[in-house]
Description:
With 385 residues, the chain is α/β, with parallel strands linked by helices. It has two domains: 7-263, no CATH class; 282-376, no CATH class. Helix content is 36%, strand content 17%. It is built from 14 helices and 14 strands. The chain has helices at 10-22, 33-43, 47-50, 72-85, 102-105, 110-117, 157-162, 185-188, 194-207, 237-241, 254-263, 306-319, 336-346, 355-376; strands at residues 24-25, 58-65, 92-100, 130-137, 171-172, 180-184, 217-218, 221-222, 232-233, 271-274, 277-281, 285-290, 293-298, 327-330. A five-stranded mixed sheet has the order 3-2-4-6-5, sandwiched between helices. Strands 10-11-12-13-14 form a five-stranded mixed sheet, with helices on both faces. Strands 1-9 form a two-stranded antiparallel sheet. A hairpin with a 2-residue loop joins strand 7 (217-218) and strand 8 (221-222). Helix 4 (72-85) packs parallel to helix 9, helix 6 (110-117) crosses helix 12 and helix 13 runs antiparallel to helix 14 (355-376). The chain is globular.
Amino acid sequence: xxxxxxxxxxxxxxxxxxxxxxxxxxxxxxxxxxxxxxxxxxxxxxxxxxxxxxxxxxxxxxxxxxxxxxxxxxxxxxxxxxxxxxxxxxxxxxxxxxxxxxxxxxxxxxxxxxxxxxxxxxxxxxxxxxxxxxxxxxxxxxxxxxxxxxxxxxxxxxxxxxxxxxxxxxxxxxxxxxxxxxxxxxxxxxxxxxxxxxxxxxxxxxxxxxxxxxxxxxxxxxxxxxxxxxxxxxxxxxxxxxxxxxxxxxxxxxxxxxxxxxxxxxxxxxxxxxxxxxxxxxxxxxxxxxxxxxxxxxxxxxxxxxxxxxxxxxxxxxxxxxxxxxxxxxxxxxxxxxxxxxxxxxxxxxxxxxxxxxxxxxxxxxxxxxxxxxxxxxxxxxxxx
Length: 385
């Protein structure tokens, strides 16, 4: 039974009825489904969590805006889930890290906050762990009332002037950084408490690769109605109003359990964590990613500068108040011949599986070639802007 404080007022009961009809769900389906599914299956970052190689431990960092913090029960459920499915002989640590003041969070969306506060694991001499980031936030804070309103079409002007932001479903953004879970406390407020432990397991299962198997699922969710990986969790109305646990989808179906078991024996090939940064090495170039941002580099990733990338992205997170958008990075040498080599290598990323990497490569190569031509005093080729 829920404690007395779970009593609902009239408005809350009406909202609860709507939830019963619609279910409470997950939004881990953003972006181009077919392109994302094909790309992420090819480089399989989920294997970094399921396997003991190349990371034989797992570090989970939990940040939260003040007033949105997850309970100890929820974090215990997350740790228990990860221990059940992740082969990490040196252990799994779930660590509460930053509590972000509400006044500081005003005007920033979840990815901008993640870039500012994500720290990653403490570096150790006996190898770096795999990394998972969890951010609890309040979407009501995304709009800064001190900032002027943007021009809006008459059809949406009332919504814009009200500065209303819809609550966001718990979700994982698989591209470009499939190692972060975002939970909007505002979405959870009127949903039964037991939903939170289920949804943290559901989202963690997305990180571990579940529902990317097209034979079993659609739009990153399982087609089995009784499975925890279904797109929404049905709320039993009579159980709900009587104070019982209203959810019956508390476990994975046999097909999802089978997919997790298969992933546990398959090793990751060309991807690893460098601190909190996910780095994928291709033949001519490498791609480093954090929430919403990537960085391209020439050659293998042996010379990748993690701290520099973290500093660059933290600056982005702070600047993007009220209008955050993904950004791409690349560093080019001042030496002409070395820069030419880097341009040639990064140009291979124009055929990368990740749409952000293809776009970034196209932009960087064009700009770098123009900068080299200007530096050498060469005339631009015909038709160049």
